[in-house]
UniProtKB/TrEMBL annotation:
<keyword id="KW-0325">Glycoprotein</keyword>
<comment type="similarity">
    <text>Belongs to the nicastrin family.</text>
</comment>
<keyword id="KW-0812">Transmembrane</keyword>
<protein>
    <recommendedName>
        <fullName>Nicastrin</fullName>
    </recommendedName>
</protein>
<keyword id="KW-0472">Membrane</keyword>
<dbReference type="Pfam" id="PF05450">
    <property type="entry name" value="Nicastrin"/>
</dbReference>
<dbReference type="InterPro" id="IPR008710">
    <property type="entry name" value="Nicastrin"/>
</dbReference>
<dbReference type="GO" id="GO:0005886">
    <property type="term" value="C:plasma membrane"/>
</dbReference>
<dbReference type="InterPro" id="IPR041084">
    <property type="entry name" value="Ncstrn_small"/>
</dbReference>
<dbReference type="GO" id="GO:0007219">
    <property type="term" value="P:Notch signaling pathway"/>
</dbReference>
<keyword id="KW-1133">Transmembrane helix</keyword>
<dbReference type="GO" id="GO:0007220">
    <property type="term" value="P:Notch receptor processing"/>
</dbReference>
<feature type="domain" description="Nicastrin small lobe">
    <location>
        <begin position="24"/>
        <end position="192"/>
    </location>
</feature>
<keyword id="KW-0914">Notch signaling pathway</keyword>
<dbReference type="GO" id="GO:0016485">
    <property type="term" value="P:protein processing"/>
</dbReference>
<keyword id="KW-0732">Signal</keyword>
<dbReference type="Pfam" id="PF18266">
    <property type="entry name" value="Ncstrn_small"/>
</dbReference>
Length: 357
């Protein structure tokens, strides 16, 4: 992302300042739809307009003279105003002139009291909810923006230093309606489009026919990893008894709308705390494995990568189990199937704050 403060008649005086730590909203695909955001091939640009509060928001969307004066806008919006209501009003008021959104966080102390880009009933299209006649909205602050498809890019800056630089340039060049003005350019172009099946097919065409290493799209998630106690690795049962396996699970991913280009991104339901407990338990059980081996239960540890979005990791795990492909690597070992499962223990993080309700 870059800021350009431009004197239109003097191209040589253009000045660009990059914000390399900005997070980007990306495009996601499933079997039937595409969601998320992306820019055009060359990026989206427009006149920067900064909106910090509700009063400034209402003043802007009712200022038809200002809106009619420019061909396109990129709105720098306080993250506290990033709700369905405000976004829809901007899209209605500006129409095709809305060329992008840049969300900003002033400081760590100005974070919203409530925020969730997930649905009010997360993952309600799957699992337990399918048997419910009435959906339980246990995430009442969810705005569902993650699952919408936007025709413009969105980015988010959460570093106070970046926010201060942004305000500095905006105040320097946008104190009046006259030129020069400050513009924004958001560049988040991605090749993914249409549906998962279509995009993966394009991957194959690109690699086989065009001899191109460019990837159109990547699968969400990574690898599910399983581990056993050391003695269980060498003494694998050839025939498993029903209800003889205990699975201990932990997720390794989180739910996030805005991703960093490099490094950890963070997100809702951070897995770090659960993974610490998961690994500590594995260590303790490993120290007492002689005692555990005297029991008639086999303990298997599994980490799931991809459950934050539509339980994709769990579905893959169950698919392999149903087809006799779990565990892999030992052909002499009897595969684990659903009838062999005695119990499942899963670790997740819980918040102690009352602001979730």
């Amino acid at each position: 992302m870059s800021v350009s403060c431009v004197q239109p008649k003097r191209i040589a005086d253009q000045m660009y300042v990059s914000f390399d730590r900005a997070r980007s909203c990306v495009r996601h695909l499933n079997g039937t739809h595409e969601i998320g955001c992306q820019s055009s091939t060359s990026g989206n640009s427009g006149r920067m307009y900064m909106i910090d509060n509700d009063q400034e928001f209402n003043s802007f969307i009712t200022d038809t003279k200002l809106i009619d004066s420019y061909r396109s806008f990129i709105i720098a919006l306080n993250v506290n105003l990033f709700t369905t209501s405000y976004v829809d009003k901007l899209m209605t008021s500006l129409g095709s002139k809305l060329n992008g959104l840049l969300l900003y966080l002033k400081s760590s102390s100005s974070r919203p009291d409530y925020f969730s880009q997930d649905d009010q009933s997360p993952n309600h299209r799957y699992s337990y909810y399918l048997n419910q006649t009435q959906v339980v909205n246990w995430n009442p602050q969810g705005n569902g923006l993650f699952f919408r498809s936007f025709p413009f890019p969105m980015m988010f800056i959460d570093e106070q230093e970046d926010y201060e630089r942004l305000v500095k340039f905006y105040r320097q060049f946008n104190i009046s309606q006259s030129t020069p003005t400050c513009g924004l350019e958001l560049s988040t172009f991605q090749n993914a489009a249409h549906t998962s099946k279509t995009c993966m097919r394009r991957n194959g065409i690109s690699h086989s026919l065009l001899d191109s290493s460019e990837t159109m799209c990547d699968p969400v998630g990574g690898l599910n990893v399983y581990s056993k106690l050391p003695q269980s690795l060498t003494i694998a049962p050839k025939i498993r008894q029903p209800k003889s396996v205990i699975l201990i699970l932990a997720a390794t991913d989180s739910f996030q709308m805005f991703l960093k280009e490099k490094g950890p991104t963070g997100g809702a339901q951070q897995p770090a705390t659960a993974l610490i407990i998961f690994l500590s338990l594995a260590h303790l059980i490993g120290q007492e494995q002689n005692e555990f081996n005297q029991q008639d239960k086999e303990i298997i540890f599994v980490t799931l990568d991809g459950d934050a979005l539509d339980y994709s990791a769990s579905f893959k795990f169950l698919f392999d189990m149903k087809n006799g492909d779990f565990p892999t690597g030992n052909r002499n070992e009897d595969p684990i199937r659903s009838e062999h499962i005695h119990s499942i223990i899963e670790f997740q993080s819980l918040s102690l704050t009352d602001k979730l309700s």
